Amino acid sequence: QVDQGRHPMVEQLLLDSYVPNDIDLDSDKTRALLVTGPNMGGKSSYVRQVALISIMGQIGSYVPAQSAKLGMLDAVFTRMGAFDNMLAGESTFMVELSETADILKQATPRSLVILDELGRGTSTHDGVAIAQAVLDYMVRSIRSLTLFITHYQHLSSMVHSFADQELRNVHMRFTESGTGTDEEITFLYEVGEGVAHRSYGLNVARLANLPGPLLDQARQKSKELEEKIRRRKLAGLVTA
User: pTM for the whole thing?
Assistant: First the structure.
């Protein structure tokens, strides 16, 4: 358990503006956190913070936090980033799954495992299925302390299949203002309970200075797809 933990490197760059966050994981209680939130909202920085504080504590260092109660770990495993291996003829998705397989073979109940965006390299259905199966296996079978970042909001319902809050949903908090083309997202960089139900990719596209007409078309298509999915869900409820 860590109170007001900070990322030891990022805080040096941001100085007074860094937002600290708590960490509460326990092998006998909440073993895993499913982390959602908007793009650029601070998910990866948060989980890296957890890993770095754990490692610093292991070597007997001071840790960047108000207080910390750390158990001993036998390893810290991470699966983050995306790259392929052209020389071996392996796609990004193949590399991702190979690294995940290595973690599943080596991790124990005394390990800390961080998985970032598992399953994004393939179709949505396959990606969700693989991500769900891996997370379930980590929590139920291996029982490692696990931080699992995802944009698949479907996975949030997994918490109901575990007892005693073994898996919890958390998200990086943010506020919304304006609508349509004037929609503004303010990142709070605070970890809160629950799920973020949108990724706000269009907000990132705007910040990246993609052309205005392109953003307008993308916004319209996004609305059409959301409406189509909403109608399908309603139709399913009616037929059920």
Answer: 0.86
